[in-house]
């Protein structure tokens, strides 16, 4: 994804030249979503005009024909500077989670403990040093839910617009999340409006808050699909072969459902034990 950012910024192209070769796969137009590569672009722009101003190698994608290609790809010195993006995303996600917990009614200490647990003792800690799109997507999803809940409290269209933009950015980072766009738009519609609204005014207010959320989200999805059209030649393309990822097999789906159900039960049990321990600790302090 970092090498693709070079193609976008320095070559002004959605094709990598030379392509990135990984095992038997050769990536000229990579299938993954473009969001993380776009996030690297500002860092590349700053570095190429400051620290690496005289170093033209920052503009180059490693050539697969080189004998030390694997080393060049895995130990890119410019990426070591740009990799600050990953811990920054985790830190921002922890902050967003903290404010989300406050919006949900948790006291400061519990909200802080939740954010610290997420940032220091969860899979997010491992992802901090890895180059994957999931942390960036998580940040934007947290932002979307934070401002949706804030909009329920403040009843302001601006918060709905920010929520729609955040969710649209999550789609840019992981295209498959656009499947959640319709139910979230329904949620935006059913958020409480002004208490004095009745009749025609009520319908107008509902339409306004739905558009406040839906227009920026729709614009981001349109941008995402436009980029996919330029890359893959189809407005409906997500980049990923759906026939490979979407397996229409009852055994496959039932196994996945059972696994998720078991995981949810274990998570609920751990949450119960954590709440019990917290309560006992508060009682012992009291």
Total number of domains: 3
Mean pLDDT: 88
Biggest sheet strand line-up: 1-2
What value does the Rg take, in angstroms? 22 Å
Q: Provide the β-strand percentage band.
A: under 5%
Shape designation: globular
In terms of structural class, how would the helical and strand content be classed?
Answer: mainly alpha
What is the percent of helical residues? 55-70%
Largest sheet: 2 strands, antiparallel
Oligomer: single chain
Number of strands: 2
Q: Kindly, what is the distance between the CA atoms of the first and last residues, rounded to a whole number of angstroms?
A: 52 Å
Order of helices and strands: HEEHHHHHHHHHHHH
Number of H/I helices? 13
Outline the low-pLDDT stretches: none
List keywords for this structure.
single chain, 286 residues, mainly alpha, 3 domains, two-stranded antiparallel sheet, 13 helices, globular
Topology:
Blueprint: H1 2-10, E1 20-22, E2 25-27, H2 35-48, H3 69-74, H4 77-82, H5 85-103, H6 108-121, H7 123-127, H8 134-154, H9 157-173, H10 181-190, H11 199-232, H12 242-245, H13 250-285
Helix pairs in contact: 1-2, 5-6, 5-8, 8-9, 9-11, 10-11
Summarize the model shown.
By secondary structure, the chain is mostly helical. It is built from 13 helices and 2 strands; from the N terminus they run H-E-E-H-H-H-H-H-H-H-H-H-H-H-H. Helix 5 packs antiparallel against helix 6 (108-121), helix 5 runs parallel beside helix 8 and helix 8 (134-154) packs antiparallel against helix 9 (157-173).
